[in-house]
Design a protein that fits this description.
The protein is of the alpha+beta class. Helix content is 26%, strand content 28%.
Length: 247
């Protein structure tokens, strides 16, 4: 769904947490090849309860489709589109969709038998699924460390928000806030991004993790929970599954 790329950006609300520093890429570190990276990214069947789409149909094809006038904030915008936050040697991305939850009691009723409140609840339930763009990018030398630092710096430096154009859709992110990261990999940072579209405020969540000379990015949007102002975050199961494939 293209909504994952466009709405995802409209709802941006970032929160950051830096994990403990671990292994560094090192000046002589070599990036994974495109073929190696493709094998390393999560695939269908790797995460129970989630479908994984590697077609890339919903995602930006290149950085040309993600623009911001604020250069220091671009790593955040790229991460939200599943693109490499830095100047990577190789990259890959997939879209994951949480399996539909069990239907509520109102789902068994015909539309004409539903009250207005039940219709609204039914629609909200149907949209209360986590859509997460998972991206991997690999770097030579100290590229991964430098890229991770650019993301961490941007979370702090872009706290007041920034404009972004994602696949032709203009959005204004009004706030970036740090959140508690998973602690996966060698370093991790998490943030929430808030957007305001004529009073329609939405929040999405992002985590960026460095595994040696490879960066993993996770961008999650849940439309149903956004509409009801309920909390959600990047699914831990996805982060754990991706970390396992990078070991």
């Amino acid at each position: 769904m293209r909504v994952a790329a466009t709405v995802a950006v409209s709802a941006l609300s970032l929160a950051l947490v830096t994990g403990c520093g671990g292994d560094s890429g090192g000046s002589d570190a070599k990036a994974l090849s495109a073929a190696e990276l493709k094998k390393s990214i999560i695939a269908q069947g790797d995460v129970e309860g989630y479908k994984v789409d590697a077609s890339g149909k919903q995602l930006p094809k290149s950085k040309d489709q993600v623009k911001s006038s604020d250069e220091k904030c671009r790593p955040l915008a790229y991460a939200m589109g599943g693109l490499a936050p830095g100047d990577a040697a190789s990259s890959a991305a997939v879209m994951t969709t949480e399996d539909k939850k069990k239907p509520t009691d109102s789902a068994s009723k015909s539309l004409e038998d539903l009250s207005e409140g039940e219709i609204e609840d039914s629609l909200t339930d149907a949209m209360s699924l986590n859509l997460t763009v998972v991206g991997l990018s690999s770097y030579d030398g100290s590229g991964a460390e430098d890229t991770f630092k650019s993301v961490s710096d941007a979370v702090e430096g872009c706290s007041g928000g920034f404009p972004v154009v994602m696949q032709g859709s203009e959005q204004k992110l009004t706030k970036i806030t740090s959140e508690k990261a998973s602690g996966a990999g060698d370093e991790s940072v998490a943030f929430a991004a808030v957007s305001d579209d004529d009073g329609d405020v939405g929040t999405t969540h992002v985590e960026v993790v460095r595994h040696g000379n490879t960066i993993a990015t996770y961008y999650t949007i849940n439309l149903g929970l956004m509409m009801t102002d309920k909390a959600y975050d990047v699914p831990a199961a996805l982060i754990e599954a991706q970390a396992a494939k990078l070991k």
